[in-house]
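Example S7 (structure tokens).
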């Protein structure tokens, strides 16, 4: 991917993040190299950044099947990426379709019941000035 035309300089870094013990509380992914706490919202893609999600791996940890949903928010409008996908007891769900996010957008995840899902995600962070 290219840094936007007309920018003076930029970087492109492969990063990863994790969400441990995801449950019904909405958790917003973080894109700064740190990991969000479960039920921590309000994180957005920083200004002058493009995020390309490479993969999201979700593993059920409590021997109890649960549904999980993922959606993006831009300007207060939620866009469902997937909704109520069932992850079986001690099973893994892999989303490896690319998702592109720009500054100000957020990516959110939640389970339908009081589940316990671990989430591992990898992404490319492009920034420019």
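Recovered sequence:
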């Amino acid at each position: 991917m290219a840094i936007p035309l007309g920018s003076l300089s930029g970087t492109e870094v492969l990063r990863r993040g994790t969400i441990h013990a995801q449950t019904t509380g909405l958790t917003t992914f973080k894109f700064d190299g740190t990991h969000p706490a479960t039920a921590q919202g309000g994180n957005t893609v920083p200004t002058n950044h493009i995020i390309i999600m490479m993969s999201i791996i979700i593993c059920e940890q409590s021997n109890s099947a649960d549904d999980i949903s993922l959606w993006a928010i831009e300007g207060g409008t939620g866009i469902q990426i997937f909704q109520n996908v069932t992850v079986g007891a001690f099973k893994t769900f892999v989303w490896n379709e690319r998702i592109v996010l720009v500054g100000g957008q957020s990516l959110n995840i939640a389970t339908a019941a009081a589940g316990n899902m671990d989430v591992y995600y990898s992404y490319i962070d492009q920034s420019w000035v």
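Notes on this example. The beta strands are 10-22, 27-28, 49-60, 66-74, 77-87, 92-95, 99-102, 106-111, 117-128.
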